[in-house]
Design brief:
Elements (H helix, E strand, L loop, with lengths): L25 E4 L14 E5 L9 E6 L2 E10 L2 E5 L8 E3 L5 E9 L7 E2 L2
Antiparallel strand pairs: 1-2, 2-7, 3-4, 3-7, 4-5, 5-6, 7-8
């Protein structure tokens, strides 16, 4: 089983994509443990496609034709996607064009699980 966020999601496909406009925030469920403990398996994240991306932002990106959820790392003009869980490798990306959106909120069953990322 993949440890990624809805790895079958394709925003350009009307069968699997979102009905939201391209600049509207949307929600996805986290699958797997790659971003634990900050984002536990099954939690919901809100993704803003119009947000600015900076070092250490949590992002939704495309890597090797799959959509993944990682932390953006920018160092010396190089870009990579890192999992919080150290059991996963850091992935190099050519630039910010791979980043599709920024995680701006984590939602959960209880209000205490809600958190904003700006």
């Amino acid at each position: 089983m993949k440890d990624e966020i809805l790895n079958r999601f394709d925003p350009t496909n009307p069968l699997t994509g979102s009905s939201c406009g391209s600049s509207e925030p949307f929600a996805l469920r986290v699958l797997g443990d790659s971003m634990e403990p900050e984002f536990p398996d099954g939690c919901i994240v809100i993704i803003d496609t119009s947000a600015d991306f900076e070092n250490d932002a949590y992002v939704f990106a495309k890597h090797n034709d799959e959509y993944i959820f990682r932390q953006l790392k920018i160092s010396d003009g190089k870009y990579s996607l890192a999992a919080i869980n150290s059991g996963y490798e850091t992935l190099e990306i050519p630039g910010l064009e791979a980043v599709q959106g920024k995680i701006v909120q984590r939602a959960g069953v209880r209000r205490s699980m809600h958190k904003h990322y700006l």
